[in-house]
Amino acid sequence: MSSPQEAFRTGHVGAAIWSNAYVLLSLTALFWAGNSIVGRAARDLTPPATLAFWRWGLALLLLLPLAWPHLKRDWPVLKANWRMMLLLGALGIGAFNTLLYTGLQTTTALNAMLLQAAQPALILIMGAFLMRDHVSLRQTGGVIISLVGVLAIISQGNAAALIALDLNRGDAVIGFAVLLWSVYAVMLRRRPDVHPFSFLAATLMIGVVCIIPFYIAEIASGHLIVTSRESGLAIAYVAIFPSFFAYLFFNRGVELIGSAATGQFMNILPVMGAGLAMLFLGEQLYIFHVAGIALIFAGIFVAGKGTASPPFASAKG
């Protein structure tokens, strides 16, 4: 059986797509945006930890045939760096999507996508705290502008609700998830020097193990998957597209145009996700959404102005 890479390289259309970073990254953004849409749509069918467990468990099964030769070779390095791998697997795989799906129980996919747009600003902050990165006055101003945009979305434009901390629980959970992801993105600098498939497979294994106690707790409390065609399709989507293909395409995009350009391009993710939320879930765009996302992107622009590469960029699903 041929690997996905070989399949893409065979045939004129496949070869053309595999050689075009912007097509691959557009598909990546679409798949990752779809993750929040499906998580919100399936909230009454699949409990959050359950959805996260099956997402990453099935993705791991898809990845292992590709990763196994690299994993065997890189195992001594991964084992020697087990503390860092544990941290990265727990944050990037175990925590983020479990919290995202939990937040989507009580907030909209639109809010979830726009809150994730604040990740670049939070990555800059975490870089300063955790890695002692130098942050310029311009970058500090950009972060403040972006965070004002986040607060506008979380408070739904209501300053009184913000002062009283009367916020939507789902927004708060997703905000915490985004914060944890920013720590993960910064700590990726200390990941062991192994093949990308080895690293991804190892983090998936760790993440799945971290999710298991929460999955068992959901079962024990009676929160079970509703057996239906829709729940099966939801699990299949999140396991195949945002977990397997999106990471494959994202890694190829970095290979073709570099991480800086890839990170900048992936800023289309929240905009694409907001459009999908309105199109498929009928969610409504309010003026505080527009103001919030405008402030977030203005902050990214201000912080990045005059730099050779974007000061902060990340992507995930």
Topology:
Blueprint: H1 4-9, H2 12-18, H3 21-41, H4 48-80, H5 82-103, H6 109-116, H7 119-131, H8 137-154, H9 159-163, H10 169-187, H11 196-220, H12 229-257, H13 259-265, H14 269-281, H15 287-304
Helix pairs in contact: 3-6, 3-12, 3-14, 4-5, 4-11, 4-12, 5-10, 5-11, 6-10, 6-14, 7-8, 7-10, 8-15, 12-13
Task: Give a verbal description of the structure.
With 317 residues, the protein is mainly α. It has one domain (4-304). 77% of the residues lie in helices and 0% in strands. The longest helix is centred in the first third of the chain and has 33 residues, at 48-80. The radius of gyration is 19 Å and the shape is globular. Mean pLDDT is 87; it is low at 308-315.
Strand content: under 5%
Helix count from the secondary structure assignment: 15
Q: What integer value in Å does the Rg equal?
A: 19 Å
So what's the oligomer here? single chain
Largest sheet: none
Calculate the mean pLDDT score and round it. 87
Fraction in helix: over 70%
**Number of DSSP strand runs:** 0
SS-based class: mainly alpha
Q: Give the termini distance in whole angstroms.
A: 28 Å
Which word captures the global form? globular
Total individual domains = 1
Q: Secondary-structure element sequence?
A: HHHHHHHHHHHHHHH
The low-confidence parts are 308-315
Task: Sum this structure up briefly.
This protein has helices at 4-9, 12-18, 21-41, 48-80, 82-103, 109-116, 119-131, 137-154, 159-163, 169-187, 196-220, 229-257, 259-265, 269-281, 287-304.
Task: Name the features.
317 residues; mainly alpha; globular; disordered C terminus
